[in-house]
Write a structure and sequence with these properties.
Belongs to the PP2C family. The chain is α+β, with helices and mostly antiparallel strands. The protein contains 10 helices and 16 strands. Helix 4 crosses helix 5.
């Protein structure tokens, strides 16, 4: 319907306007009508045209065609669960905007960080599940692991990032080992992990799970902005991911199970890659969680969830304009192309907040309520039925992908709207 009604709408408007013009000139074109009949005909056509406009406007709102979802005006109701870094921050490779919103009732399970230094920029988006323990652990430890490995080896490469993620995974497994007897549920906490690392004009992206990195790039043919998705959603709702999982675990019975029509690894988790989730990786923990919905029906004999990130490395190009890194709460409601269009046509200041609000407006409309109603509700469980936690970081590149080594260091962690002590200091690292 969405692909047929709009052309019909335009056709009706054009033909309606055409007929109205004919009605106004019917003295010359339709001489057999009296002036009264001409007036009545023109009035009828105008009434039908206005009716059609009202119907189309109604359908547009219901079906989500409102092109002003990203408008950041028109409401005096603030969102108590939305945080953003109010000013646009300057970093070595350009500028960035950062925003988050909590959807879960008791705590935000997302976490995120931006670390900037003279030669580089580190962005981490962590989408936790089962709690915030692993996402917070990633925020505390992944960048320090990266800095330590880079200083030990003297280089910062794709392998450095991969090894930093492995060290973070191993570190949390040590936590699980020390705490699982007192708290078995620590074995069932995990997090998706998306890292974008800009280092001396080169971009490294690592991803586990269904967070997404999307590049806004200028098309050299039509000079329009286009979305280039740099990561794959490691989610078994996708046929190719399910096929990959089945091929990787041919010896594991019921590796994929449907729960209420949704595919999940062992009936428990939708993503095929994550940090944490020890009960799906280490056999001795597979029957430990005390929460019934998490406990497996039978013990696993080997890991059924990967902690190996998907990697991408590329040099920044002159036509690369910006990068959006966000948790899946954004992409559930906003397409990659729509997101880059919003970023491209709106002011840079507060653009991460604008993307979050665009997603919240679409999510609210899908549920038959307004975003103002969502913001105003006092029911802690209501919002989770509308939207997930959402974390968004937008990085605008310097012209030509250059970097400024004189920019001071900066460290920002999501939900903390103040500068933390800068820790991106990698002097002597190539």
């Amino acid at each position: 319907m969405a692909f047929t009604l709009v052309p019909l709408q335009l056709q009706f408007f054009r033909s309606g306007a055409h007929l109205t013009d004919h009605g106004k000139s019917c003295g010359s074109r339709f001489q057999f009508f009296s002036d009264g009949k001409c007036a009545r005909m023109a009035g009828l056509l105008n009434w039908l045209l206005n009716l059609a406009k009202s119907v189309v406007a109604c359908c547009t709102n219901l079906l989500g065609w409102n092109k002003d979802d990203d408008d950041d005006v028109g409401s005096s109701v603030s969102d108590p669960r939305l945080w953003d870094r109010e000013e646009l921050a300057t970093c070595s490779h350009g500028q960035f905007s950062f925003a988050m919103v909590q959807g879960n009732p008791s705590q935000c399970e997302d976490d995120g960080q931006v670390e900037s230094g003279p030669h580089g920029l580190f962005v981490g988006v962590y989408d936790g599940h089962g709690g915030s323990r692993v996402s917070s652990y990633c925020c505390d430890n992944l960048f320090p692991n990266l800095a330590r490995i880079a200083q030990e080896t003297g280089v910062l490469t794709e392998d450095t990032l991969r090894n930093a993620i492995a060290a973070t995974e191993n570190g949390f497994m040590d936590v699980v080992h020390s705490e699982h007897e007192a708290d078995p549920n620590v074995t069932a906490v995990g997090s998706c992990c998306l890292v974008a690392l800009l280092w001396k004009g080169r971009l490294h992206v690592a991803n586990l799970g269904d967070c997404r990195a999307v590049l806004g790039r200028l098309n050299e043919i039509n000079n329009r902005i286009e979305a280039v998705q740099l990561t794959r959603d490691d989610n078994v709702s996708l046929q190719d991911v399910r096929s990959e999982v089945l091929n990787a675990y041919p010896d594991v019975p019921d590796i994929l199970q449907q729960v209420q029509g949704v595919w999940r690894i062992k009936g428990r988790i939708q993503v095929s890659k994550a940090i944490g989730d020890a009960f799906l990786k280490i056999p001795e923990y597979s029957l430990l969680p005390t929460v019934p919905r998490l406990r497996l029906r039978e013990a696993i004999t080997r890991s059924v969830l990967s902690a190996e990130p998907s990697m991408l490395t590329r040099d920044l190009q002159p036509r690369d304009r910006f990068l959006i890194c966000a948790s899946d709460g954004l992409w559930e409601h906003i397409t990659s192309q729509r997101a880059v269009q919003i970023v491209n046509k709106r002011p840079r200041e507060g653009i991460a907040r604008r993307l979050v609000k665009a997603a919240l407006k679409v999510a609210s409309r899908k549920s038959g309520v307004t975003y103002d109603h969502v913001k105003s509700t006092t029911d802690p469980n209501f919002r989770r039925n509308i939207h997930d936690d959402i974390t968004v970081v937008v990085i605008f590149f310097n012209q030509g992908g250059t970097y400024d080594a004189t920019v001071p260091g900066l460290s920002i962690r999501g939900t903390k709207n103040e500068n933390l002590p800068a820790r991106f200091n990698l002097q002597g690292v190539a």
